[in-house]
Amino acid sequence: MSNNQALAHEKLAQATAVLDEFDVDAWLTFARETSLQPDPSLGFVYDGDVTWASAFLVFRDGRHVALVGYYDAENVRQLGAYSEVFGYHQGIAEPLRAVLAQKDPQTIAINYSENDVAADGLTHGMYLQLLRILEGTPYARRLISAEQIVAAVRGRKSPAEIERVRRAVATTELLFDDLEQFVRVGMTQSEIAEYAHSRIDAMGLGYAWPKPYNPIVTCGPDSPVGHAAPGEVVLKRRHTLHMDMGVQQDGYCSDIQRMWYVLEEGEEIAPPEVQQAFEVVLSALRAGEQALRPGVPGWQVDAVARQKIVDHGYPEYMHAFGHLLGRVAHDGATVLGPQWERYAGICERLVEEGNIFTLELHVNVPGRGVMSLEEDVLVTAEGVEYLSKPQTALRYIRS
Fold it and tell me: Hey, which residues does 257 pair with through a beta bridge?
């Protein structure tokens, strides 16, 4: 069994236990042509693509059934995770109704959600098709959102998933060290990013978010802050250098931010306003870390870090303090964010043991640039474990 197959078995077993925990009888992932329209949850029930309409059914009694196009069936069988695999020719409606009639689930969770993009993989067209298939049966009235199922399966990282994230984080830290040796005064953002791309590509790694703006490189006060592609802003002395980078390795991601100050000739340390900004950002990040515990709603963690920034006289940052990390950089479900409209339904979710979060925030230093840190941490029963090596001191570019 390959590592990916073993991981699929692990996550399917976890999904079965989650169904029992939430008193839900079945979880249905209903998809087609996944190379064009992938469901974010598909990778947890099947490690591959499908073409025709396909139904992956996880039942709380441990029986798993896959109904797929005939020419996809052998790939699903080789996974070895499904009790029954049906490969149909003319249509999925009859075999799907037959399986449901045999098992008679009272609740069927399907992948739609108003709040969590990671649980909203069922397209409107596939939803209408599913309703037509179930017309005249009791099962159309038994459909519920799979939001809580997906949040648990996706958010509670298994040991194998944690190890993959840990490796991606370690690789990213080595890349940052390499970049620090490469960077020189007078380089543009795009030159720095192109070097990072050359190293990531040479290692055969993927990108945790799209390559054109990964890494994000912010040089001094004239660079746009946020998800902006590196441009032609030049790195100058007495400015800050900020990089936000994440790789995808073995299917799992990192997401880390690091900070440098570019010393003036004869300067040995950063000016007081730069050093103070770093220390405030670090203290706010640590305050949020201390509040991050299983059972705490995400918005409360954000509030602690946000207040630390405001108490030191800086404007509050206009984003969440942290997000889940996993197969992608923004891994859905719980957000460590304020109770704003855009975080409704996900900032209220409770932090759980096994969650992997980023912790990130920033302030601006007038005339110098942005000051921003981001760490990757695992939630444990007692609190958090850092997967990244936390940056506790400002780093310097000297030449």
Answer: 244, 374
List residues bridging with 216 in a β-sheet.
244
In tens, the pLDDT along 302-338 reads: 999 999 999 999 999 999 999 999 999 999 999 999 9
Taking Cα atoms as reference points, which of 74, 49, 39, 33 lies closest to residue 327?
39
Q: pTM for this one?
A: 0.95
- As a whole number of angstroms, the distance between CA 85 and CA 70 comes to 10
At 93, the amino acid letter reads: A
The CA R_g of the chain, rounded to the nearest whole Å, is: 23
Poorest-pLDDT segment among 166-170, 265-269, 303-307: 265-269
Q: Which of 98, 131, 93 is nearest to 112 (CA)?
A: 131
| Helix residue ranges per DSSP H, the chain | 3-21, 42-45, 73-79, 93-103, 124-134, 147-155, 159-182, 189-202, 272-291, 298-311
DSSP of 18-83: HHHHTT--EEEEEES-TTTS--TTHHHH-SS---S-EEEEEETTS-EEEEEEGGGHHHHHHHT--S
> What angle in degrees, to the nearest 10, is found between the helix axes of 159-182 and 189-202?
130
Q: How far apart are CA 240 and CA 397, in angstroms?
A: 9
> Looking up tokens 């087609």, which residue turns up?
32
Residue 127, CA distances (Å) to 58, 122, 261 in order: 18, 6, 52
Cα atoms in the Cβ-side hemisphere of radius 13 Å centred on 373: 25
